[in-house]
Design brief:
CATH topology of the largest domain: Rossmann fold
Shape: elongated
Largest sheet: 7 strands, parallel
Radius of gyration: 28 Å
Number of strands: 7
Helix content: 40-55%
Low-confidence stretches: 1-9, 124-141, 277-282, 421-434
Strand order of the largest sheet: 3-4-2-5-6-1-7
Distance between the termini: 49 Å
CATH class of the largest domain: Alpha Beta
Length: about 425
Amino acid sequence: MTRSDRLALSGPIDAPDVPMIEIASPTRRDEARSAMAVAASLRDRGVPIRDVAVAVRDLDPYEEPLFRAALQYAIAPVFWTQLRVTQTRPYALVESVCEVLAGDAVDRDALLRPLELRWSPPTSGDPLDPPLPDGSPSLSAEWPMEAEAVHRARDVLPDGSRPIPEWIELFDSVDGADDRLRRFAEWIDAAPSPEPASVTSLLGEAIEGYAERAVPETKSADSPALLDTETDARAIVRVRTLVRQLRHKFADRLEAGTLERSWSAVADLAGVIATQRPGRREHSNARALDVFEANDLWALEVPYVIAVGLTAEEWPRPSQSALPPEFREAVLRGEGATGALAPQPAWVGGRDRDQFVDALRAAGDCVVVTRHTRSPGGDEVARSPLLDHVETRRVSEESRRRLVGADRELPPALRDIVVGGPNGDDDGTEGDRE
């Protein structure tokens, strides 16, 4: 690597020829509110919401404040993130069923866990689920068990581990025991031994019962943006795929002798498959505002991009290298003996820098960059050094307050762009021309 190649890692950014507006807010929550106020104001001025996208380097610290701010402005946000399927209810249901099946005896909490996670019986046609007589309430009205019913069951059932047949007998002798407890226990008792085909069929029944009867419960209790419902739906798709993969993976491991034939081994193998997180969601909603992580922006084309989190602590993320900064700088310069060493792009935020450029290039009309100036502890948060490579028109605090106020008045610099008026001359510091 030549010296010029090394220095190119931190060289000037070849920014696209679109106006850039910079909004600084006191706190992260204020910043999220400013970003969503821009989106709402653009929408109110006739810009279709699908022509606006929000870009964040890392959604974890921003998803909650952006979501709250979006609802404040009657915006339905769609967060394009990898699904952490192991943190979803459908996956937890599969895991809890395996736990109940794993041992010769099961305690009260483990037995009730699948019911807490909205287990429902398999669809009609199963021997344990005969068609209901005319006039009987439908299964969808009885299942899943209400949270209150599961809590009552925990109160009336004794603690301690028992084989499933003993639990079934106990349900007949305990006053107030819900008949649905027996229904679930009988399903567990009839479960086949863990073979590749039976693993797929049994866990498939659990996830299909959830899809049919539990998702409507999620939707009825969800917010207007239906984020929990969408997460449930995405998780069901992933877990269905996982269950199909389990059949082949389990068969291969059994044949190779690297896995024991047990339900606990099935649960462990499911965890291995689930944590691979193979893809991103593909979802489109013309009435929702798309919120992307920066590494998903490389092929995006949209008129307005709102890039959030342009601070020195968020974008670029500070290097975690254990090497001293002086040594890293010497390697980047390539002087003397260090010329034989290859620098890490992360030392100068190479990946974050590329993603910042992708965010700029995705915008056809305008980029709005936002940042916050104070940490939760009141410490000053520095401006991102990436912004030193581009020219921005900074919005004054007075204009920002009007933007997030009741009238949602666009800053003049951005208003000129939306109405197609002149952008005016700007010295890069106060672009409002007020």
